[in-house]
Amino acid sequence: MSQVKSDLEIAFESEMKKINEIADNLNLFDEEVENYGHYKAKLSLSILDRLNENEDGKLILVTSINPTPAGEGKSTVTVGLAQAFYKIGKNAIVALREPSLGPTMGVKGGATGGGNSQVLPMDDINLHFNGDIHAITTTNNALAAFIDNHIHQGNELEIDVRRITWKRVVDLNDRALRNVVVGLGGPSGGVPREDGFDITVASEIMAVLCLATSIQDLKERLKRIVVAYTIHKTPVTVGDLKVEGALALLLKDAIKPNLVQTIEHTPAIIHGGPFANIAHGCNSVIATKMALKLGEYVVTEAGFGADLGAEKFLNIKTRALGVTPDAVVIVATIRALKMHGGVNKNELTNENALAVKDGIQNLEKHVETVRKFNVPVVVAINKFISDSEEEISVLKQWGQDNGIKIVLTEVWEHGGKGGVELAESLVSMLKDPKEKFNYLYELSDSIENKIEKIAKEVYGADGVNISPKAKKQILEFNENGWGDLPICMAKSQYSLSDQPSLVGRPSGFKVEIRELKASIGAGFIVALTGNVMTMPGLPKKPAALNMDVDELGRPKGLF
Amino acid sequence: MSQVKSDLEIAFESEMKKINEIADNLNLFDEEVENYGHYKAKLSLSILDRLNENEDGKLILVTSINPTPAGEGKSTVTVGLAQAFYKIGKNAIVALREPSLGPTMGVKGGATGGGNSQVLPMDDINLHFNGDIHAITTTNNALAAFIDNHIHQGNELEIDVRRITWKRVVDLNDRALRNVVVGLGGPSGGVPREDGFDITVASEIMAVLCLATSIQDLKERLKRIVVAYTIHKTPVTVGDLKVEGALALLLKDAIKPNLVQTIEHTPAIIHGGPFANIAHGCNSVIATKMALKLGEYVVTEAGFGADLGAEKFLNIKTRALGVTPDAVVIVATIRALKMHGGVNKNELTNENALAVKDGIQNLEKHVETVRKFNVPVVVAINKFISDSEEEISVLKQWGQDNGIKIVLTEVWEHGGKGGVELAESLVSMLKDPKEKFNYLYELSDSIENKIEKIAKEVYGADGVNISPKAKKQILEFNENGWGDLPICMAKSQYSLSDQPSLVGRPSGFKVEIRELKASIGAGFIVALTGNVMTMPGLPKKPAALNMDVDELGRPKGLF
């Protein structure tokens, strides 16, 4: 067996075009493009004004089955599909999320696609990428400092130090910061209180940045963020602290989308990366809008499986974006379907058509869910060399029986060429006029009803159990006038249910709503099921142990 | 009295040149310049190789008397002097430190000069400036996460959790983080221990970056950093944790100097900004080296007064740089001299020639100190409208009596034009061949002797009192083989002594050495006198309250 090249090796062997060339191909003006090095740029928000009257391109959302340890390759297919559109002469743009540095340092595996379907420069994108996430970390922590300083300086707003909901963040996997006590060391160290750190991508600032439609909207969202409650249990906002201007100032560059390219020089706009559990898991509204003005076909993705990322894209992001997808691609692999059919990770190379058949149920549920929104669906199989003819034919038969388009792709190995059939299927499918989008719930539905609709319609649950704590919160949230916000579910990504071990298509379960969280700046209510990890830890042997940089600044060991 | 324009207003009214034009004037190649937006760039380290054989320019170090609340304007004079050189047809470059965001958000007042002697774009330089400080924050905190993860995963190195010297950092003023307890919440939250946060510019990573001469040297310095002691009291290094490669990778862009311009389009290289108390307070060695290869006259500065910044520049930085200054400029104002002469801040506008005469003693000591290094000195008076003829003549008379060159500058108001006399004095002074530089101490002197020499020769102390704790540390440090490192004094900047209230030229005092700190990566032993603040707090009304950004991304209220 020949040695397989790493993504980093493939990336380094490919020659990038200067970013200005990519920008020129998009007919951008020089003053709209701020280079960050030779191969990255930030795009001015003025592009949105200039192209305001342009018709939007077609929006294709890529999602997946519930992720498994077998890997699905959603980002790889997303990049590969955009390259495939480019290959067949379509002006395509891929719009992705920015990776978080924490997982990069912890676990081998990036968020920039793989093989011949990558975005470049993958090392820079996986490291500090134009400083966006660092700006968000700083903004988040500046706000925390303003809160603690307010308390230290006399606490005019009567903030209850036991009811501060704003946490600090680092863009690292650092379990020791999950639960901390700050303000120790006597009066000069402020007021002692319990606190904790999240990973930056879980910060509400990230969600706010990703849902904002302009700097003005950013500032208004920042102003609405609830950071604490007073001793009278009334909410305290950023506006009460009068720092929304300073926070917005800290984000003045981070709000500009980043332009890079794929390995085949397809333009890629990468911007924002909120968690797909306690936030909505999609790239920024501004980036997507801009891509739609600049491209004929825009391929974007959402976090985790369709039950989390796509549901939130469809119910939350589209409401801020003002645009709904023209089609949804659900990515699966034969290997992952086998795991949903009950096969262990170390038996994946054994042929097992029966397990594929069982596992298809997971895929089937996601197809059904997307169809409820009245959006056309294609299933893309990210092909592996170990997939057998029989396994594939089981899947194809199921597609035929149920009127579901299934397309094999080989974008990891062949780049855009490996996705041409998928691109062509979509081009042909999108010739039909767009049908009316169907929201799963109305914003005016009650909080309970919205949660229940998601649990039943998307997860296939029998219903929900709302804890006494969450019930009390619903009352309070309604009193605060937050009842009309959409719901952002925080649930295990590994199962359609809230129990990670239930693979396939579980039934007969109820979803346990443990607690709610008010993300008023982002503009949604988070419903937490079970324990949601907002600060990952490092493994025993972090990926960082293999990393290095040579005398010319070239990275080593980064995937 | 007419309204005085703010620095931000002056900055915004001036037209910048595109950074490529500035780079072209320095004869840099396109591939050596990585733009960060239209007006900032990073410079490739390959420039150092290409110009290795070029003769160095003249190096001028700007320092000041002990800072007072009256303000001295050291950065303004530094920028103005470079502009003045440019004005008289000399190819000059100003090499500055990067400002920290913490003070920017806290107290009105930037670190980018003022009036018509500023570096631009001042807003970007004062905010996230090409991400350097964020990269340092991330590197510092990644290391902290690796340490806590090592302990959590079994603690193979037998780190004593009570003897971890590595602290986490944020680039903010956040007193609540000075003393914290991390690792709470049960086994999933790691191992509980006392910890604390410093401001990023106090991180040893910053000092390491600023003293490194190449990526290889950076990696070796990182490897040597001592982060903790084992239960057997032996030092634990980054090398023991095997993460120097990952840390260096995180700094691969931060190590590249940043190119910007002054308001008069003089090239400015701004890079690195370590604290001048627990670190050495100078811009990076790499940036200074590069400026010396690119410019005929390089004007740089060091933190606080000559007793701190200049002493460390001369004893620490020159040893890594391999170059010593050709001249030192000591900046003072009549107002500040009056404060050193005992006048209160609110009486500064009253003429008081007697107080000037008394205050000159502070200036005199700094002149004497610099002359001990055998480097020519010029005193630059940063002129204020309130300075009287008589006050100025007192100063001039003192200069004449003591053979000290004193030059008035008006660079805040008039830019380079206001510093032409100073520039011309330096040009004429530097025609003489450079005399042999005289180090204040040999590295082979004992730790006690090195400290004593600084205290006596630079501060004018009678001697030092070394605490029992510090004495014990000296024994340990010698055992560890650290006895030959230079000393980095952490002392109040406001006084020549270690007591902030003793202005002027105190005498008859001893310096109290409370504790030592081993910065083995940076390559110095910090001697702490009194309490040194490594994490500032915010004032009751932080500067952030006035900050804002408009719909076009333009900042407001930033100075």
Describe the protein.
- The structure is a homodimer of 559-residue chains.
- Chain A has 559 residues and is an alpha/beta fold.
- In chain A, 36% of the residues lie in helices and 19% in strands.
- Chain A is built from 20 helices and 26 strands.
- In chain A, strands 1, 2, 3, 4, 5, 6, 14, 15, 16, 17, 18 and 19 form a 12-stranded mixed beta sheet that branches.
- In chain A, strand 5 and strand 6 form a beta hairpin.
- The radius of gyration of chain A is 23 Å and the shape is globular.
- The two termini of chain A are 20 Å apart.
- The mean pLDDT of chain A is 96.
- Chains A and B meet through helix 7, strand 9, helix 9, helix 11 and strand 25 of A and helix 7, strand 9, helix 9, helix 11 and strand 25 of B.
Q: How many strands in all of chain A?
A: 26
Instruction: List the chains of the largest interface with their residue counts.
Output: A-B, 85 and 86 residues
Number of helices of chain A: 20
Structural class of chain A: alpha/beta
User: Percent of residues of chain A in beta strands?
Assistant: 15-25%
Assembly classification: homodimer
Spans of at least 5 consecutive residues with low confidence of chain A: none
Report helical residue fraction of chain A: 25-40%
The pLDDT mean of chain A sits at 96
Instruction: Give the termini separation of chain A.
Output: 20 Å
Largest β-sheet summary of chain A: 12 strands, mixed
Spatial shape of chain A: globular
| Rg over C-alpha atoms of chain A, rounded to the nearest angstrom | 23 Å
